[in-house]
Design a protein that fits this description.
heterodimer, A: 171 residues, Rna Polymerase Sigma Factor, Chain: A, Arc Repressor Mutant, subunit A, 2 domains, B: 280 residues, 5-stranded mixed beta sheet, 4-stranded antiparallel beta sheet, 15 strands
């Protein structure tokens, strides 16, 4: 890579690494693993730096890499002990000692996110945290726009159920 | 609508109390190493692929029958007899009778007349024949004629079947014969189309010249080459030839490439002898 490209990449990495780490953290609930995933994602971006559309595709590609890195971590044997698909688990009783009170604790949100299936969790995080569009999310996850909408909807409903946060209570 | 969730997610992802341990320089080093490894893998793969291709080609060419060591002489050797003007085949010492002429009849005319013969019912089962009836979509691979007599090889559109058609449209006694043959991959030494007939061999497309030597005949016959390896020797009624006889000498068929290399040399397993070469 040329020196000018490396300078551009360095600038991009410096400004993006925290954002990618936060996204990864919401996906995996562990700051150390999130940092690993952000690094892996930036290495992938470095490998394809010449071929990425720098104007629009850079952020999307970086997020695709970080989501892939987190999902790859789940697939590794030494990560499988982690609970990542508990659709039928009533975690509200575990996570919500006081369901009436508003959830202030960040840890409870992360634990509730961890109770979502990975695809729903990724849709919720990408749509409602990283503020990506349906099409961008669909491209990152490699699914259709309809799939993104349905997964996001189910994920939000499940998340609200877990947090006992309805739109009415929020308003 | 989901601002509550967004607010919660933003709060949950607050990393103000989480120091960043990642160093961009470390990421750069990892990236460079990754690119280097990918390049090495690409070069190694390309090298191995090239070596495999070269090795495969070398192995294949060394085991080919007609590549490194062509049968017989390496070039077609002929001599022109200055006294008689005849072209002499050096290998047999016999004069070479010229190839029969290309028929001036149109392909359409030949196919139309052969269609009549094709419609005559036959009793031999041909489960391999899926080409359908002879039609104008068939092509004429080679054709020759002499007077009222025509000989042609017709090929089906899907190249699965060939037909050998012989006509004699003399209005006094019209006659003809028509036979279908399954086309298979042409072997280096040719593919028999009609058992026993010296003009029933299909040769590889690289063959540009065919010489047929029938033991006992005073000359070697040169065939008329058509397309796709088909050839014919003469538009003559094969019934005039001698029937097969046990122990009878068999015709030898030689094929030469455009640059004179002999790339085919075989004898027919048995033979229906040809009628005499007509006076040209």
């Amino acid at each position: 890579m040329k020196a000018r490209d490396e300078a551009e990449f360095t600038e991009f990495a410096a400004t993006t690494v925290r954002r990618l780490r936060r996204t990864a953290y919401l996906m995996c609930g562990d700051w150390h693993r999130a940092e690993d995933a952000a690094q892996d994602a930036l290495v992938q971006v470095y490998r394809r730096w010449h071929r990425i559309d720098r104007t629009e595709g850079l952020n999307g590609y970086a997020h695709r890499c970080v989501v892939t890195a987190v999902l790859d971590q789940f697939r590794r044997p030494w990560r499988r002990e982690r609970l990542n698909d508990t659709d039928n688990t009533d975690v509200s009783t575990v996570l919500m000692p006081d369901v009436v009170a508003p959830v202030e604790d960040r840890l409870l949100v992360v634990q509730a996110l961890a109770a979502l299936p990975p695809s729903q969790r990724a849709c919720v995080v990408l749509r409602h945290y990283t503020d990506l569009s349906v099409d961008q999310t669909a491209e990152i996850l490699g699914i259709g726009a309809g799939g993104v909408k349905s997964q996001t909807s189910r994920g939000l409903a499940k998340l609200r159920e877990l947090l006992e946060q309805t739109e009415r209570s929020a308003s | 609508m989901s601002t509550d969730i967004e607010r919660l997610l933003t709060a949950a992802a607050d990393d103000s109390d989480q120091p960043l341990h990642s160093d961009v320089d470390d990421i750069l080093i990892r990236g460079r190493r990754s690119v280097r490894h990918r390049r090495i893998a690409t070069i190694a793969t390309a090298t191995l692929t090239t070596a495999a291709v070269i090795g495969g080609v070398a192995t294949w060419s060394s085991t080919r029958n007609d590549s490194a060591a062509p049968a017989g002489t390496s070039t077609a050797t002929i001599t022109i007899d200055v006294k008689t003007g005849l072209v002499i085949d050096d290998e047999t010492g016999k004069p070479i009778a010229p190839a029969p002429p290309v028929s001036l009849r149109s392909d359409r005319d030949i196919i139309t007349k052969c269609m009549v013969l094709d419609k005559i019912p036959t009793w031999d089962p041909r489960p391999w024949d899926k080409a359908g009836p002879l039609s104008s979509r068939w092509s004429v691979a080679v054709k020759t004629s002499r007077g009222h007599k025509v000989a042609a090889v017709l090929v089906a559109p899907d190249h699965s079947v060939a037909a050998h058609c012989q006509l004699d449209d003399d209005p006094k006694s019209p006659s003809g014969s028509f036979g279908r043959m399954q086309l298979t991959t042409v072997a280096p030494d040719g593919a028999l189309l009609r058992a026993g007939y010296a003009d029933g061999l299909r040769v590889p497309a690289a063959v540009g010249k065919i010489l047929v030597d029938v033991p006992g005949e005073p000359q070697v016959r040169q065939a008329l080459m058509g397309t796709d390896g088909f050839y014919t020797l003469e538009a003559l009624d094969s019934r005039l030839g001698t029937k097969p006889t046990v122990g009878h000498p068999k015709p030898r068929i030689r094929g030469y490439s455009a640059d004179g290399r002999k790339i085919l040399d075989r004898q027919l397993p048995f033979v229906v002898l040809l009628p005499p070469v007509p006076e040209h």
